[in-house]
Protein: Polyketide cyclase / dehydrase and lipid transport
Organism: Saccharothrix xinjiangensis
Amino acid sequence: MPSVDVVDETFLAVPPAVVAAAFAQPPAWRGYWPDLTLDVYADRGVQGLRWTVAGALVGTMEVWLEPVLDGTLLHYFLRADLPGDPPAKRVRREVRRRQLAAKEVSLGLKTTLEAGRPPGVAPALP
């Protein structure tokens, strides 16, 4: 089992294609995960991406985009290890840091992609 195992889910009131576009270009990845080197091993189109991860962590990561009601449930999975043999305290700090970073990415996208949409109003289709 990986030492860093992060799972997050956030609902975005926009269609999956809109969320997929936010992850489509590799330069965007550097903004979301600046200390990770990502290599796509499964491009699932509007369903998301799967990467191998290197750099500060070594393992895999996935963004799965599930259509739900009038929007998208953004599922995020990070399963990786810190290089070397870090002490347990460092691993715990890293897990917490990655949990907060995952929520920062998803809520940042929610704020950006839902901008201008009044609550209770269906999202605009692309």
Remarks:
- The beta strands are 4-12, 36-43, 48-55, 58-68, 71-81.
